[in-house]
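Predict structure. Input: Tetratricopeptide repeat protein, 256 residues.
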Amino acid sequence: MTYDQFDLFDQYTNKTLPDAKRQALEDQLRDDPALRDSLRDYQQFRHSLDAVPLNRQLNRIHDRLAAQGFFDENTSDRPPVPLSSSFRRRRLVLVSSVVVLAGLLIGAGYWLTKPTLAEQTFLTYYQPEPVARGEMACSPGLLPGIQLYRTQQYEPALQQFTALSASQPCVSYYVGLTQLATDQPELAVHSLESALKPAITSPPLIRQKAEWYLAMAYLKANQLTKAKSQLIRIAQQPDQPFRNVAQQALADLSHD
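Output follows.
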């Protein structure tokens, strides 16, 4: 998919494409299977951005509670169960009391470890880069690392990327992307800021993706002011594929 096609599909999906161009595109889609495949790829990309990763949020909350000792993690093939009591419950009223108390403790544990607004927004909108777009404009030397990243083999991917020249914006972008996926937000901020230095010329889509993931890194690092500024910058760009989701994130942050 070319960058022009990406922009065209974005306008088509957002219903901002003029009627004549929309009709022309739909005529092309009927006759061109490759173009239809590209549109499906784009729609998958947009769906991945727009879908709120609820399961990811629940897993993060579960991990926080497990760290507080509320769950037994000795088995990985079934859901965690509450820690058993050291004494046998012989009366129904005692069982009921323990259940109620456990619920109160779990609730207290959640609120004591409740994510900050920045962390909560990060958990809502962050996910690893869902599809490959724009990397063909980068050095072919990045492709092995990108493949490892796509299969969530983050440590080997990071080794591949850091072996390349950090002066390349694509390298800085993928290093930052991988650092963010491995819970290193401060390092990710540094790498993604490097990918966006004004003096550096980078492929347009790589730059736009770096802008988005830098906003995510700011959120993860609890740098809320910088995150908001970055999201505003994204939301003000008409051709930014992350514009809509940045506006949604800003709306969530405004509820504070």
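Strands lie at 71-72, 81-82.
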